[in-house]
């Protein structure tokens, strides 16, 4: 089973939920941090890193001795990543989506591909927990290709927990697509409520069952709870605004290790998710 932990905005406690859920369970678990622009699950997990791989994506290079300046490469590219200007062809690698279309349509076979670095993927472990995260290269504009590379390490024989990026754009979709369950983390504030509605819209498009965790649940107002009832979204856990929890978080420690009464709550959370996934599969 794949559980993707997501949120409509940053700062809701998404990573806190992902890491504490991952280490609470006795079953085999792997944690994939797909927030590749700013990964921080490792700050809590503190894994022993065993492998580091540089990830590249194919981009075009043009042999001008073969090129006839026909312009077919520019015509097929929807992102203007390669254009004919005067007597030369200019590829813009930062805009390239690595579709390979320009290579296929070039009648002179003047276009080949080389690798452009996206970032790195680091793999390690912590007391039996398998850990994988990506680090996007500074200045790189597109994170979904690296996110997809991180997700390739998901194994069907273990529970996979994905820490998704915040928001509702392409990186989030890349992190949620194909998951069995989406765990949405929000807070009872105007911003939290607004962005929860956007996040739920993305989940509905993907047609994946979801549930809600309300962090700092005793602050703000009840609009998030009312919206959850209206949309028939189960509230699976509420975490109060607690000084002990805030202190644990500020030290980079795990809630379930310092405050052991929370471990059972995260175990119960996983049980509820499993029941919801099983119910969804039966209804299909």
Key attributes of the depicted protein:
11 strands; alpha/beta; two-stranded antiparallel sheet; Alpha-Beta Plaits; 284 residues; 11 helices; single chain; 2 domains; Rossmann fold
Overall residue-averaged pLDDT value: 93
| First-to-last CA distance | 17 Å
Poorly predicted runs: none
Total of DSSP H or I helical runs spanning 4+ residues: 11
Arrangement of strands in the largest sheet = 3-6-7-2-8-1-9-10-11
Number of strands: 11
At the fourth CATH level, what is the homologous superfamily of the largest domain?
P-loop containing nucleotide triphosphate hydrolases
The global form is elongated
Overview of this structure, please?
The chain is of the alpha/beta class and 284 residues long. The protein has two domains: 2-54 and 118-283, Rossmann fold, CATH 3.40.50.300; 64-109, Alpha-Beta Plaits. It is built from eleven helices and eleven strands. A nine-stranded mixed sheet has the order 3-6-7-2-8-1-9-10-11, sandwiched between helices. Strands 4-5 form a two-stranded antiparallel sheet. Strand 9 (181-186), helix 7 and strand 10 form a beta-alpha-beta unit. It is elongated, with a radius of gyration of 22 Å.
